[in-house]
Structure formats: structure tokens, C-alpha cells
Amino acid sequence: MSETSLHPAVARVIEAAARKGVVLDIHYFEESTHTAAEAAAAVGADLGQIVKSLVFVADADESVLRTYVCLVSGPDRVDLRRLAAVVGEPGIRRASAREARDLTGFVIGGIPPLGHFRPAKVVMDPELGRHEIVWAAAGLPFAVFPVPPATLRALANAMVAPIAEERALGSDAVVG
After folding, report:
1. Whole-angstrom Cα distance, residue 101 to residue 25?
2. Are the CB atoms for 125 and 72 separated by under 8 Å?
3. Which domains can be identified in the chain, with CATH numbers?
4. Residues 118, 143, 19, 78: is their CA dihedral positive or negative?
5. Please, which of 11, 27, 113, 149 could form a disulfide with 6 given CB 3.0 to 4.6 Å?
6. How far is residue 81's CA from residue 127's CA, in Å, rounded to a whole number?
7. Beta-carbon neighbour count of residue 90 at 10 Å?
8. Considering the entire predicted model, what is its pTM?
9. d(Cα 85, Cα 58) in Å, to the nearest integer?
């Protein structure tokens, strides 16, 4: 895709990274990268290298939602109790698909860690830091970019905290 024909969602991600001095290498695929497993297969990476950007909300008042974007490794799921403790929001919940789209400006499966419509607090699970390179959505369900975890943290202005559910040793995690 040429710079002039960029989809507005991808352009927003590229522009957000550029404001922090980072040039992203966007990879487009004909097949979907909507799920972590699809993304891992498309880029030839381990499932653990895939960044899931999951949206959670808490009521600030009757008309305003505080937005939280959680960055977790492909096989992991967010532990709501851990997340609530980390962000100090006992009433936090997973956003609906519509809320996620309205708050971030991106559809589920393409939600990137940066470039959201509304300000969001971003929390990154430390498990992502175990990899040299991770892959995150670039605004569409068929566009991703590789990034070192430390750069991802800086791009998303993320707080790093353990928010993933504990995994039993030797168990295979199901992508949620």
C-alpha cells in the first residue's frame, strides 16, 4: 500500500508512532490476523509473540467510561481481579465490541496498542517482555507490525504490571 492510499485506521497508528519518533513496519495479509492464532500463523511467530490489545472500561459517572487497554501475550487472558487492583477500579469490566470500537476507533481484531480516539490508560503484562520481538495489530484485522517490547511500552505509554491469569504448568492456554 502506498502512503497516499493508507487506510485511515492504519494511518492513525503510523502517525501516533511517528509522534514518538518511531517508524513502524506495517505488514498486510490477505488472510485475517483477527485472532492471535491467525496472526501467529501469518507472521510465522510463536503465539506468545502476538500482542492482544483488549479493551476494558470502568464507569466514571453515568455518561463517561474510563478506558483501559490491556496488552497481553497471545495465549494469555486478563485476570479481572488483578487488573482491578492494578488500576484501582473494582468495577472494571470487559468492553463490549461496540464500546471498544467507539472508545478506540478500531474494531476488535485490529485494535492497536496506540492511536486510540479517546485517551486510554494502557497496561502491559510483563510476559510480553520475554520476547525479542512481538507483533501487534496495526488498526485493521489484517495488518500488524513487529516491535521490541520496550518500544511497545514506550509507544503505548504503558504501565507494566502482571494482569494475566495464572497458567498451570504444562497446560495449553486457549486464545480468548
Report:
1. 24
2. yes
3. 3-160 (3.90.960.10)
4. positive
5. 11
6. 18
7. 10
8. 0.90
9. 13
Q: Dihedrals φ, ψ of 44, to 5°?
A: 70, 35
CA–CA separation, 68 and 93 (whole Å): 10
Widest pairwise Cα distance in the chain = 48
Cα-only R_g, the chain: 15
Please give the Cα distance from 71 to 92 (Å, whole number): 16
| Exposure class string for 101-140: b at 16+ Cβ within 10 A, else e | bebbbbbbbbbbbbbbeeebbbbbbebbbebeebbbbbbb
Grouping H, G, I as helix, E, B as strand and the rest as coil, residue 170 is: coil
Polymer length in residues for the chain? 176
Residues 96, 52: Cα–Cα separation, whole Å: 16
- d(C-alpha 32, C-alpha 141), whole Å: 6
Summarised one tens digit per residue, pLDDT across range 81-97 is: 999 999 999 999 999 99
Please name the amino acid found at residue 86.
V
Q: What gap in Å lies between CA 37 and CA 103, rounded to an integer?
A: 25
Answer yes or no: is pLDDT of 4 > 80.
Answer: no
